[in-house]
Amino acid sequence: MLALLRPLLAACLCLLAPGARGRSPARGDGFHYQDISDGNGKGEIYFNGVRLHVETPRLSVSATRGSSVTLPCHFRYEPELSAPRRTRVKWSWLPANAVAAPVAPEAFARETEVMVAVGDRHRSYGSFRGRVRLRRSSPGDMSLVITELRLNDTGRYRCEVIDGLEDESVTVELELRGVVFPYYSPRGRYRFNFFEAQQACQDQEATLATFEQLFSAWEDGLDWCNAGWLADGTVQYPITAPRASCGGLDLAPGLRSYGQRHRHFYRYDAFCFSASLKGTVYYLKQQTKLNFTDASKACVGDGGRIATVGHLYAAWRLAGLDRCDAGWLADGSVRYPITKARANCGPPEPGVRSFGFPPPNMNFGVYCYR
User: Which cysteines link up through disulfide bonds (predicted)?
Assistant: First the structure.
């Protein structure tokens, strides 16, 4: 609307006689104003002749868990100003499980404030408090630096620059490099409602995967014929090799979707997402195999703790962990990671092999995290 009014306001200036009520107030800030407060009764003042631009060179940025990342955002004026102005900058965030493209106006109301800055003063909010700052490497640089990245930091970030009535913004998507893995309850298949699936993933140092993360995993070859919850409340599963028992032979490869399901009443498995870790996952060398209780104690005695399923998948995919020895994990399952398939180490494809949830008094090795 402001862009449409500029030509009209410029034309009005030529028609106003000296001393008329619609005069242009003199201001020493490098802007030219048209005061139409007498005309509409709202006291509004519009900029004329100077335009604010907010830009980013990258629409998406990817990083690893625990690292720092910079979301680029710059602003400039056209034409350039002779003197800098005091601007207000607001960064806000729409979590990955709420993002839907294209950006809808109603999505703005769901955004959470990350940081607000005016001049040298700034304030950060919520889980971002103490973890964010503006880069300010050059004039107009309002790029957001986030430290100690967390699994839940993914989503769409909005950089909004406000100068008087000028208000322009740009968005940047933040993604974490990681791995998607299917997860089911020790009690059997299809035991989680949505909220239980969320908690199950959190217990494994992971989060519910987004549609984009599951789609990317499918592109990398993930094939799983059991439906699982995603972060947006839909239920889906990835198929690379169509077969009768997984949606039918006539359907093309892709993600099979049940759509939205009631989050309390319906029960499925879960697709979790785990990103890289600061610590190390390793197979504890022991003289003898251990039951589950002794395996947990052995990791603590070695200065660590028993690894989670999320730890093991992240170490397999992102750190190349390859070990043909089955070991206990924190949820009571027994698994082992294979990056180079070979004889006597399971199927011919790389992956994390699972023995399910054997009785806790059985003896296996153990994977620890430190």
Answer: 225-246, 299-368, 324-345
